[in-house]
TrEMBL record:
Pfam families: NTP_transf_9. Residues 33-124 form the DUF427 domain. This is DUF427 domain-containing protein. InterPro entries: DUF427, DUF427_sf. PANTHER family: DUF427 DOMAIN-CONTAINING PROTEIN, SLR0655 PROTEIN.
Length: 166
C-alpha cells in the first residue's frame, strides 16, 4: 500500500497542492501567461483558468485566441479525463519548431467544467518556456501530467517516483 506523502508546509503567499480538492476545482485566473516555442512567443494572455487537484500543481488553460495564428494544428488521438471528459490534442507549431501533441482542449467538457470549452492547456516540458506572471514554470514531473510549478506552489507533486498510488 502506498503511503500518502508528507505535504511541504507552505510559507506566506504559497499554496499547498495538498489543500486542493478532489474532484478538482476550476477557477478563473487573471494574470500574465506566456508560451514560447522556437524562440518566439506563440501564446500570451492576461486571463485564463486554473484546474486545481489534490497533489497536482495547477494546470493552466488559455483562451484559444491567446495563440498566434497557425500555432494550433489539430493532432490525431484523444484521451479521457474522469473529471473533464474527452480531450482533443494539438501540435504546437512555430516558424522553426513543432511540439507534437503538446496542447489539449476539451470541446464539450463535463458538468462543472463547461467554462473550459475550447480553452487550451500546454505541456510545459514540450515547449521552450512557459511563464506565469513573469516566472518561468517548472513542468510537473513524470511526463504525463500537465501541471505548472511556480514558486508559490508547494508539493510534493504527483508524478515523482513512487507517486503512482496517490
Amino acid at each position: 500500500m502506498t503511503r500518502r506523502p508528507t505535504p511541504e508546509p507552505p510559507r506566506p503567499g504559497q499554496e499547498s497542492v495538498w489543500d486542493y480538492p478532489r474532484p478538482p476545482r476550476l477557477e478563473t485566473f487573471a494574470g500574465s501567461i506566456t508560451v514560447e516555442l522556437g524562440g518566439e512567443v506563440i501564446a500570451s494572455t492576461r486571463t485564463g483558468f486554473r484546474v486545481l487537484e489534490t497533489s497536482h500543481p495547477p494546470t493552466y488553460y488559455l483562451p484559444a485566441e491567446a495563440f498566434s495564428d497557425g500555432v494550433l494544428r489539430p493532432a490525431a488521438g484523444s484521451s479521457w479525463c474522469e473529471w473533464k471528459g474527452a480531450a482533443s490534442y494539438f501540435d504546437l507549431v512555430s516558424a522553426t519548431a513543432v511540439a507534437p501533441r503538446a496542447a489539449w482542449t476539451y470541446l464539450s467538457p463535463t458538468s462543472g467544467f463547461e467554462a473550459l470549452a475550447g480553452a487550451v492547456a500546454v505541456m510545459a516540458a514540450a515547449v521552450d518556456r512557459c511563464t506565469v506572471n513573469g516566472e518561468t514554470v517548472v513542468p510537473q514531473p513524470g511526463g504525463f501530467y500537465g501541471g505548472w510549478i511556480t514558486s508559490w506552489v508547494v508539493g510534493p507533486f504527483k508524478g515523482i517516483p513512487g507517486s503512482n498510488g496517490w
